[in-house]
Amino acid sequence: MDSLDHMLTDPLELGPCGDGHGTRIMEDCLLGGTRVSLPEDLLEDPEIFFDVVSLSTWREVLSDSQREHLQRFLPHFPEDSIEQQSQLILALFSGENFRFGNPLHIAQKLFRDTDSAESGFMQ
């Protein structure tokens, strides 16, 4: 099993929120060909999104194996690849612009602006 599969398939524990009965409004999304249900608030509220998708989550919540798995998707560099990847991660979570903006900011905007009622899924 992929090291992140459980994060995408295990049910979330629902607390007091949403309609007051512990239910949340969920949105179905396609992420890399995998269908997942994510809380609507996570997708639409930038403050919540960036509280979850953050450097502190990277450092304090994800396990070493989860971080290693995700680092496989980063560019590999001919020299000091681990150090270069660490700098890239810091730049990503600090909001620095890459060629056409910050990928996390772009993703959050796409989630927020996608008319999910019309399309049914976000890609």
Automatic annotation (TrEMBL):
<dbReference type="InterPro" id="IPR044867">
    <property type="entry name" value="DEUBAD_dom"/>
</dbReference>
<dbReference type="GO" id="GO:0031011">
    <property type="term" value="C:Ino80 complex"/>
</dbReference>
<protein>
    <submittedName>
        <fullName>Nuclear factor related to kappaB binding protein</fullName>
    </submittedName>
</protein>
<keyword id="KW-0539">Nucleus</keyword>
<dbReference type="InterPro" id="IPR024867">
    <property type="entry name" value="NFRKB"/>
</dbReference>
<feature type="domain" description="DEUBAD">
    <location>
        <begin position="39"/>
        <end position="123"/>
    </location>
</feature>
